[in-house]
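Progress narrative, work stream C.
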Amino acid sequence: MNQIIHPTAIIDPKAQIGNNVEIGPFSIIGPKVILQDGVKVSSNVVIDGRTTIGKGCRIFHSAVIGTEPQDLKYAGEDTAVEIGEYTTIREFATINRSSNIEQPTLVGSYCLLMIYTHVAHDCKLGGRVILANSVNLAGHVIIENNATIGGLTPVHQFVHIGCFAFIGGLSRVTQDVAPYTRGASVPYKTVGLNSVGLRRSNFSAETRATLKKLYKIFYNSNLNTAQALEKIKSEIEMIDEVKHFVEFVENSERGIAK
């Protein structure tokens, strides 16, 4: 098994602990926790509830995962948290389990949750999401793959943040943030494409040029949302990224931050 477990750690006998797992001093692992192979848990960590931690994850000092949701509607249901593979959760981060028995709080693979981040009940984070220090997500927030949120930024409940979006630090996000865009400030303002992120993620020059045309129509043409979408559909090649942008906007419930 090659487990390295400090003698002061408290691990319920019913917890499922994989191969090559390390658990540091004074950490507490509850009875319904699953730690898959290669998970490394530092000191003073609490992992409780029906929580599954994917293989290769690293959890740093004093993080708290799987405790009850901060939701007055919660009535003690056996809800859950699921965390993908090779995600890093830094010091004092907190992840609450869901308030809905049918769907866990989800954090994807290869994510980075920095110090003092908070992921509330029923959030769904895709893969390779980065939350910088002290980002706070309210309940039911959805963040798609490869999005980044700068430090000290709160995100309103039910907000949807699109893939490859980049949100600058010290912002306040109360509306949906469209995929492939970047912005910041209070109130939040979209200021351009996330060109650096798209280039670093190997989006082709042709795709980036198409998204630039889309951006100009949607954000800079003085058209309302419905008019802008119609113009995009009629004038721009409907590559996958354009289709996703259009569907994201059409399905937005909180409105798109402009």
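Work stream C, second folded protein:
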Amino acid sequence: MKKCLLFLPAFLLAGIIYAQTDCSDIIISEYVEGWYNNKALELYNPTGQSITLDNVYRLIRFSNGSTTSDQDPLYVLPLTSTIQPFGVMVIIQDTTKPGQDTMVWPELRKKGTWLAPYDYGGTTPGGNCVFWNGDDAVSLQKKQTDNTWKDIDIFGEIGVRPLDWQGGTTGAWTDTKPYWRGTGAYLTKDQTLIRRHNIKFGIDRIAMSHYGDSLTGGFPNSFYAFAEYDSMPANFFDSLGSHWCDCKTSQAINELQHPGELTILPNPVTNNQFRILAFSPVNSVEVLSIVGQSVFFKKYTSLLREVTVHINNIPAGAYLVRVFSSDNQVIVKKILIH
């Protein structure tokens, strides 16, 4: 199934731009709200340096429209470990211990790189955190030099519990204004949402206020997932584990300093497309099977150093990419298609 894409003019995206600089700190790169306990959050490091999370970053689930969950240790999940440059951390529930009601599915478990405690209603700090079901806001916070915590990225809208189509409390944010009243299709329930590659920094509470003047029950134009995310259906886990972001693209282009150099992102290839970043302008691209059969060919008359290759209907597996540059060079790279 293809992603659901939506083009937004620049003036719409301007409402969520704030003072944080591009590619400067961790962002939420993927949100999974699957069936049962199949919940996951992917965090992406858009910088060229390793980022250690210990005692500096934490995750909070603002449950059912709460504005005070950050004061309840059960909903505050301290993060540890290190995210490598342009790497990710995939957070899932630790349902591996005996006595849990529903195990995380094996295909999601193998994607997880960091286990959050599973202790809903218990006493473990953070034990209630990774339990979102479409109507909870999730905040990534960072400790400041004065020991206060600042939202550096938010999924959803803190303080708003979106309604369902009957006005009840089993809803989610939708694709129809004002996005929280239950009209339209749910975007944050039974969905996987993947951050778009051109998003280089997160959203904070100040940025959320740009959606509109506050009203009782939420902003008139509340959290609209399609502003920054593409959607996949429930229980889609294939894209977890790597993230394609223009932060890496920009650095990759700068790192190409000699004729014949190129980079392919992402690799392994996901979502039926990849980018080629080359030292010299690209003339044409061919994809071949391992035995040499051509399965894709396209000529690029624009002669750019960066091109996007769409490879619909090519089976998963290992392939060779042959890139012909405008200075008559031929470069061959291996890719994996998921």
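DSSP finds four helices and 19 strands in the chain. No further action is required on this item.
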